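Changelog note: in this version the structure field was regenerated for every chain. One regenerated record is shown below for reference.
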Amino acid sequence: MSELIKIAVDAMGGDGSPKKVIDGIIHNHKTNNSNFFKIFGDKDEILKNIKGKINDASYEIAHTTNVVKSTDSPLEAAKRGKDTSMWLAIESVKKKETDIVISAGNTGALLVIAKLNLKMIENIDKPALSALWPNKKGMSVVLDLGANIECSSKNLVDFSVMGSSLYKSLYPDETPNVALLNIGSEELKGNEIIKETYQILNDKKSKNFDFAGYIEGNELMNGNVNVIVSDGFTGNVALKTAEGTANFITSELKQALSGSILGKISSILNLSNLRKFKNRLDPRLYNGAIFIGLDSPVVKSHGGTDYIGFSNSLNVCNKIVKGNLIDKIRSNI
């Protein structure tokens, strides 16, 4: 039996915790028995939800009743103390007791506490928040999604290396194709920083990824590029726009197909295709953003996702560790 992947889980972060988080662990364990969970939070609450539902040898509980609140500012969260479930989970990765940490809690707090506890990978100045997006041909890695509002050309080059390393960890048989998110595809378009980054990546000719130049917002889902790089401001706007558009399309379609007799008949006749369409846009399938650039991997599950979404982000944790993400970034940077 191969060695278990040790995942530090902040059980108290996000909506409906710890029940949702524990249900996600139980669901994940049914299909993947290569994970061991070190769960941080209120022991009584956790045991109430987990006892007898998975093998006792698959988890251990580190008890604490102190939690980072969703309303805390990053500074308030850090001041809340070193005995919060989030801090202790991150600290366990720092001490090498676990391989990776995951939390559905406060994003700003997670980034600040992670940066306080963990070192940066050598030669990287800023960590980036990255996530998986669906495209016509499969999946793309997109970064930065909000950790850094302003970035230098060096930061964007680092993001290209980190994003392609992440893609290679998740999809070992594919070659990453990197592009810079911009307002046009011509070389002269964009601000000075993005043009400078273009020149560096164009001249660099990396052996770890192919550089595809610029990509515009309307091409993000076409699948020709699988690593998309931007500063955190632009990336976050793109992310929220894509999420809002997906929600708009699904709700409008639902309304159209349930609003009249003809619509209802049409939806019954097309049930299989509609189910495929709904599953393709299901955000739970793409849950699990990753802070990369730190010397241990930190995964952020969406606070509002359900247990299926949390379970999917545990799969992302497993793949990141198995794919040796940190070592890949170190050797590629």
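Spot check on this record: The domain at 1-124+293-333 is CATH 3.40.718.10 (Isopropylmalate Dehydrogenase). The radius of gyration is 21 Å.
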